[in-house]
Amino acid sequence: MYVSTRGAAEKLTSAQAIAQGIAPDGGLFVPESLPVMDEQTLKRMISLNYQERAVAVLQLFLTDYSESELKSCVAGAYGGDKFSSSAVAPVVKVTDDVFALELWHGPTSAFKDMALQLLPRLLSCALKKIDEHAEIVILVATSGDTGKAALEGFKDVDQTRVMVFYPENGVSQIQRLQMVTQQGNNLAVFAVKGNFDDAQTGVKHIFNDNAFNAQLAANSFKLSSANSINWGRLVPQIVYYFSAYADLVQSKHISAGQQVNFVVPTGNFGNILAGYYAKRMGLPINKLICASNSNNVLTDFLATGVYSRKREFHKTYSPSMDILISSNLERLLYHMSNNAPSEVSRWMSELNSKGEYQVSDEQLQAIQAIFPAGWVSDTQTVATIDKVYKEYGYTLDPHTAVAWQVAENYRRETGDSSPNIIVATASPFKFNDTVLSALQGTDSLAAVSEFTALNKLAELIDTPVPAALAELEHLPVRHTSVCNPKDMPGVVKVALKIAE
Ligand SMILES: Cc1ncc(COP(=O)(O)O)c(C=O)c1O
Ligand SMILES: N[C@@H](CCOP(=O)(O)O)C(=O)O
Predict the structure, then answer these.
(1) DSSP letter string over 207-239?
(2) 227: Cβ below 6 Å to ligand 2?
(3) Burial degree of 133 (CB within 10 A; 0-12, 13-18, 19+)
(4) pLDDT score of 183
(5) Residue 145 near ligand 1, beta carbon < 6 Å
(6) Which of 16, 35, 81, 400 could pair with 60 as two cysteines, CB 3.0-4.6 Å apart?
(7) Which one of 11, 43, 112, 204 is the catalytic residue?
């Protein structure tokens, strides 16, 4: 069963929690108890393929789904030619003890596909299980990648509508084009005059507005989420930690049971939290290294125990991590406070009212023992892209470059020599301008169109542009609406044709 981190919501099955998205008390759903993966299953994982590994993990959490339901959801998500790598999430050896877990081989070239190809299937199955006939309206706040992956995953899925809100000037050109050209009959995309936090706060307000929800219900609509606040987004992300480990044992780069570090470029804290669940389940993870850009709210929290969003918001070369309110930290705090919803509620209400909260020294030490943290500037990010390409011939996108550099700094400062698995979250082509200018200097972009830059990068790194990105040049723009964050509820009503 799933409970709210704030303790004032009914316990739900996983199907109910996935359909609902966020708990009605404003909290996030978490498993009441965490499953453990026994050693035998862990060993068995090594000889399984990605789909089989996914079923083995999902089964432990989604206990109200049958094995055949999970197999069918997983086959639909990861089967066929949806992913450009047959391994789905391949692990690439870059040096003797640094590996890249490439999570960007899906249809939208970012790690969000790992969950958003599966979530629509889990949700459709959930709606049948719980006999829900309302149309599900999926609200998405995005700093660039979740939005496109949600649009692609939910496109024309029965009984669903999708509305995506992205920061007007806060995503890369390719990310924007991916969203504004999206086809499908059940979706809408809006630019928000603000940053990602404004969009995410706007969405959370809509979720928590009882009168608004009642009006939707009267029109046979119900809200849900495709962000990582939805448990159905998070659980598929646990799978690739197990899969990466199994691959490294299978290829004999590590021995079974050996401790490894995962280094995760972090924003909303969903990806790294999935790694935490994998560790709690028994995967031999030494550290989960939290890597940030200059929006370094998490680095400061992990150093001091004070989470303060009272700081300047920076627009960086890794825009998908330009986030100051990391939603999933709430789930970690719940687990690290020994499941104390009253403490979590107090922290979250302080964050709302005062803009900050502080955990105890004891809690901080427990968190620090698992999550070392660091951040790098834009200048260091582009220097890292250049250095890694020149030294190893490996091309990093700016988010993955942040993780790479934080990993290098961590190793130098601590002497921890465990193998580092860098979680590679996006294809370099999604951030072609930054990557090309990192490799060839800013002059390489002078008077060059987005698509010329894509082709130049492809030529330089001798890798074809992913077909879905190349074809953006010829797709018509279908979504041009812009709104203020405070107008988001009205925008949703207009899109659903609900009268005031
Ligand atoms: C490319 C990329 N890297 C890293 C992140 C940060 O991941 P998370 O929000 O799960 O911490 C995001 C956005 O979520 C992203 O799109
Ligand atoms: N970086 C994300 C921000 C939202 O994160 P999510 O994991 O909660 O969906 C994005 O690309 O939109």
Answers:
(1) HH-HHHHHHHHHTTEEEEE-STTSHHHHHHHHH
(2) yes
(3) exposed
(4) 96
(5) yes
(6) 35
(7) 112
Residue 345 lies in a domain: yes
pLDDT > 80? residue 444? no
Nearest ligand, measured from the Cα of 148: 2
List the one residue out of 480, 484, 436, 486 whose CA is nearest residue 458. 436
Quote the percentage of the chain above a pLDDT of 70: 100
Q: How far apart are CA 284 and CA 278, in angstroms?
A: 9
DSSP assignment of 242-274 equals HHHHHHHHHTTSS-TT--EEEEEE-SSSHHHHH
- Residue 202 covered by a domain: no
CA distance 372 to 383: 23
* SS3 assignment, position 81: coil
When pLDDT is cut at 50, 70 and 90, the band that residue 449 belongs to is: confident
- Residue 59 is assigned to a structural domain of this protein: no
Residue with tokens 């899906």: 106
d(Cα 494, Cα 500) in Å, to the nearest integer? 9
Q: Is the CB of 271 under 6 A from ligand 2?
A: no
How many domains does the chain divide into? 1
Query: Burial of 167 by CB count in 10 Å (0-12 exposed, 13-18 middle, 19+ buried)?
Result: buried
Short-list 69, 75, 162, 153, CA closest to 117: 153
262 located within any domain: yes
pLDDT tens-digit readout, 354-377: 999 999 999 999 999 999 999 999
pLDDT digits (tens, 9 = 90+) for 455-471: 999 999 999 999 999 99
- Which pLDDT score, from 0 to 100, does residue 446 have? 77
Pairing of strands 306-308, 356-358: antiparallel
Task: Report helix, strand or coil for 115.
Answer: helix
Residue 368 belongs to domain with CATH number: 3.40.50.1100
Q: What is the ipTM of this complex?
A: 0.99
In this predicted structure, what is the pLDDT of residue 167?
A: 97
The amino acid sitting at 271 is: N
User: Can you give the residue range of the structural domain that contains 237?
Assistant: 91-111+232-424
| Mutational pocket test of ligand 1: of 271, 273, 290, the residue with most ligand atoms within 8 Å of the beta carbon | 271
Q: Is the pTM higher than 0.95?
A: yes
Instruction: Give nearest CA residue, ligand 1 atom 9.
Output: 268
CA distance 245 to 16: 31
